[in-house]
Structures are given as C-alpha cells and as structure tokens.
Amino acid sequence: MSQHVTLSPSEAADRLAIRELVETYAHCADRRDAKGQMSLFTADTHFVVYMNAKDPTPSQELHSREALAPVFAALNQYDATTHFVGQTTISTLSDDRATGEAYCLAHHVTVDGSKRRLMVASLRYNDTFVKTDGAWLFSERLLYVDHDGLPDAPLSHGCAAHRLRPYVDTRARSNAPGRLSDPLAARG
Description:
Low-confidence stretches: 151-188
Shape: globular
Oligomer: single chain
Radius of gyration: 19 Å
Strand content: 35-45%
Number of helices: 3
CATH architecture: Roll
Distance between the termini: 43 Å
Number of domains: 1
C-alpha cells in the first residue's frame, strides 16, 4: 500500500504539467501533428526505441528534435491511431528536472480496400524531463515495446504490422451490419 504525502502547490503543479506533457505527446500523435509533437522535446533530445523490450540493443536512436520528424511522420501510414495513456509515475522531481515512466496502449488501424486491420501495442516510456523557461519538456524518451498484437495473438518483436494476426473488419466501407472478427479464429 502506498503512503500519501503532502505536496506543495508548486510540486503538484509540476506533476500535473508533466502528466499533461505525456498526454499531449499522445494527442499530437493521434492528430498527426508532428510539429506539435516535436515541440515537446528539447533541441538536443535523446529518443531511443526498443522494438523488443527484452533486447538491450536499441532498434533506433536519435539525438535531436529535428531527427524526430520522420519517426512521427511514419504514423501517416495508418488510417487512424489511438494512444491511450495509462499510469504515469514520476520517480524523481526537482525544481527543473524529473524522471518518470508512462504506459500506453497504442491502437493502429490500417485499411486495405474493404478490410480494416487493428494492431495494438503495449508501450512503456522511461522519460527524463527538464523545465525550461517555465515549461516541462522531454530531454530523453526511451520507448519500449513490451508486446505488440492482440490478447490471443502470438507475441513477437519487430515490425508488428507485418506479422501479427490482426482483427479484420469484414464489413464493406458502408454501414453494413457486421462486427470486428478474427478471420483465423474460425479455422480452429
């Protein structure tokens, strides 16, 4: 059981601002606002992606705000995304520096003709934040893909969109009745 402590108004405001920073990152991703997303980072940011959280070797490592542009632009391959932010824990907090961890379920929808596919990834971010000119920014963001896929799909690493058993919407693009289904489940 956690023990609650009294927070100063300043600390409470900083914690809220950091939570809002994490949420704004997800909001910008889902709205395809790459410039807005990039503005949440320091100019000399360090952004590291681990497509397999169990592998200590990064899949991608970037060292500047400008280097983030193609990463965020890659979301344009999806018809829609929803990054649902879960718990955010602030581990350390000083006047101008903080560390924390955030969890996210990222839903990615692709459309191929009349078929829609959904890929869900469980993401974890280990973050370092700095307060610059009164605003909190990411100075380092380590992105770990804990798993990508569906609850009943085999777990894998790497580019999930090409290997996973997605749910497929078998309805035509009209409002025809139907539901999301897993076409491989019928095979037994």
